[in-house]
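Journal club prep, notes for RB
We'll compare a predicted complex against what the paper describes. Inputs for the guanosine-5'-triphosphate case:
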Amino acid sequence: MNSQSPISNLQSPLGIARAITQVERGGENTRQLIRALFPFTGRAHIVGVTGAPGTGKSTLVNALAKELHARAKRVAIIAVDPSSPFSGGAILGDRFRMQDLAGTGIFIRSMASRGQLGGLAAAVADALLILDAANFELILVETVGAGQGEVEIARHAHTTLVVEAPGLGDDIQAIKAGILEIADILVVNKADREGANAAAAALEMNLNLNPNKAAWRPPVLKTIALTFEGVNKVVDAIMKHAAYLDEKQLRVPRERARFDRELRGLLERELLERTLRRVTPARWDEWLRQITQRQRDPYSVAQEILDS
Ligand SMILES: Nc1nc2c(ncn2[C@@H]2O[C@H](COP(=O)(O)OP(=O)(O)OP(=O)(O)O)[C@@H](O)[C@H]2O)c(=O)[nH]1
Ligand SMILES: [Mg+2]
């Protein structure tokens, strides 16, 4: 870091990309960077986009970003793939996406679980802060797959979209995976395919069966992301949900949930690191040997380490 304003490095896409690479590495430089940036954050609206593999999330996110850009919003995309340590396929797909967005001024970055000391969730949380400080008004975060990852990301988001597509199975994937509760907006993509109306009706019925106590009823919207059909309405719904959060003063509770999670994760990692720093590899090996030979149990070894 130089002595200029901490956000002066975030004025170019290259500077932003470098900052994200930094937070992926973790460590003291990351702590300093985030400390310096944090006062400049808190204005971005974070939209999580999740759903089963292949429902068209990436296509939809690109279309949403273009539509938001056309409405003069500063937009960034983070594509998170928690399942992939190397993200070979994802990188290929992303190349294509990046070309698709080239020259638009829309920032896009993909993050997989490779090479992060502090874990992917922490790196994504920090990347969101960087993009926020870099003055992006809307940040679209796409996550694939694993239920845990989806819920994790939803904790960062102000607005969560759950994307479905017909023909991927008999049931609606979100109902099966139990992720409907996190949805603020439901999208049935691939509406050009047979079964889209049935999928939308099933989602509506599920909403009727499990009515939310909150005043916001998630709209069920059909899209054809490939041709931009319905994308306008999804953007309208995002803006409407953002306004709803402001009007009902729900932004602060959502932020609390986000930072509650983050603070706990941070403490977990810090305490673990500090504790392990006091232990030599030789002692660690010796403890493992004692445990595997049933001379000691893991609880008493952990207690000894904590007491030391
Ligand atoms: N027919 C049809 N195909 C679509 C539509 N939207 C996306 N697709 C296609 O569906 C396939 C998967 O799209 P992606 O956008 O990569 O889906 P995804 O959900 O991001 O996939 P993962 O990231 O692998 O989970 C691609 O071949 C898209 O071209 C649509 O509205 N209609
Ligand atoms: Mg994708």
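Talking point for the session: The chain has a mean pLDDT of 86.
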